[in-house]
Write a structure and sequence with these properties.
Elements (H helix, E strand, L loop, with lengths): L2 H20 L6 H12 L9 H15 L4 E8 L13 E8 L4 E8 L10 E9 L19 H18 L5 E6 L8 E7 L4 E7 L5 E3 L1
Antiparallel strand pairs: 1-2, 1-5, 2-3, 3-4, 5-6, 6-7, 7-8
Length: 211
Amino acid sequence: MTKRLLNAAIATAVMLAWTACSESPKPTPAEKTAAEKTAEAPKPPEPVAAQTAFYEMYKPARTWAADLLPLSLSSGEVSSLKNEGGKAATWTAVFVSPGRHEARTFFYSVVSDPERISKGVTAGGSQPWSGPTAKSQPFQITGFVVNSDAAYNAALVKASAWVKHHPDKKVTFILGSTARFPSPAWLVLWGTPKLGYAVYVDATTGKVTAR
């Protein structure tokens, strides 16, 4: 072998060795399968704040009536998932159509409960609606600024002493508009109306409005 050929062979061998060292080691089939499983594993369901559920229900509701307005939004529970921090596993929205004089209820859930509700959005049937009253009035979506978790935190400041002595009481959220308040308001209720503690939070400003 000539000196020139020998030098070329050595250079080629060095280049191949350097390339092999610089390449990342390829995962074994077992490692690749484990990584794929981790990437594909679905996240466990979690409760959601009200606005997440509301806008999921609002999309199909718009196809029912273009002039619809929200009348109420309330939290619900399922046995398989705990509500916490102003978030809930299920939400129920009632929309009204002033033009049709009808109301329609929509449901949203992050899980399926065979006895109560299916995962995702479920639409109920239409019902006659006679119009607004002093205790129940439709409101503009632009007034729904404060989410349920923020309303919970604001209400908890007011109710902290009572909640401390009643830690087992569940909390319910109801968003609506009445003649009592200038803006839509959250009713944050621990326990029941008779045996509980209620705080109203303005859904536009986030301020506690009344006890």
